[in-house]
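for the record, two folds in this file. i put them one after another cuz i was lazy. first one right below, seq on top, structure tokens after. the second one comes after a little note so u can tell where it starts
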Amino acid sequence: MTAEITNLKFHAQDGMVTFGGLIEAVLDYIKSDPSRHYSIMIGSDSRASDETEIVSAVAIWKIGNGGRYFWTKSGVEKCPTLRDRIYKEAMKSITLAQEIRSILKDRMGEDFLWDNKISVHIDVGNVGPTKEFRESVLGMAKGFGFDAVIKPEAVAAFVVADRYT
């Protein structure tokens, strides 16, 4: 696990948690109703500016029954172009998703990952200025073994993370 990830602090409904606290909260949520199926969504967003903070969100949805979410901000990132910003957002989400997947696999077993989906939500769409990056960032996420979701279904990026940018 990278030091960058382990040092993150996440905002939650009941205050701040460390990355380890985020993992425990997700595990507790799942263990409170283990017969259900869950969708874990990781997405990032940032303001359109040369220097910006990237907000990354982790949402866990108990399918058909609500969920929880957590979010964190990076330090200031230099993003001189839209392409730089979109790629940095996508890689933040992918890196965070990799760490979460690895820990859930270790703690819950590989079968958990067959029955429950982890997806990376990317703040690009089929229209607008980000459409030219769609195929490449979808390919990045899929290359790391994740289902990739774009706007308007990319709620972790487009709704949750966007709320805090």
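(here's the note) second protein begins now
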Amino acid sequence: MRCPQCGFEAVTGAAFCSRCGTRLFVPHPESRHEFALSRIMTSWWTYFGSFVLAGVLFVMALAAMAARQAGQSGRPIGLALFVLAVLIVVGALVSRRSISWSITSERLIERRGFLSRMRREVELADIRSVEVTRTLMQRLFGIGTVVVASAASADFLIRMQNIANPDAIAETIRKARLKRLA
């Protein structure tokens, strides 16, 4: 094979020219197909307090409306409490939908935001450590926090807070990483 840069006759099958160092052929990359392993969202238990507060406000709104029928003017207060309860529920739903994590065969992807979006990715081969922490309250509700540290930078962390079954998620990441490195 002749070098396209210097014209030197190179040894058959050589990747680089022995005279000038030019690559003689471009190896075709191995085709890998990435597939999803898991999609993770914040647990519903995170929003339990919001739903309880909305329920209490809804009951108070019903009581204010019932007081109106008894001759008192509770309609504006009842309507305001009902709207506030609905806003709290909608806020909790939007908050839950605004963050998610995906584990694929190649990467761990974090997506944040509802109107504006932020996306952070860590290659599975670049994962340095996976840490699982569970406070007492998280243990009572079966949730926890998984922190994935990248080998690329000490500051680069993906923190999956208040997720259901954190030990299984950490094990999925570990197995996917080992399979990726093999």
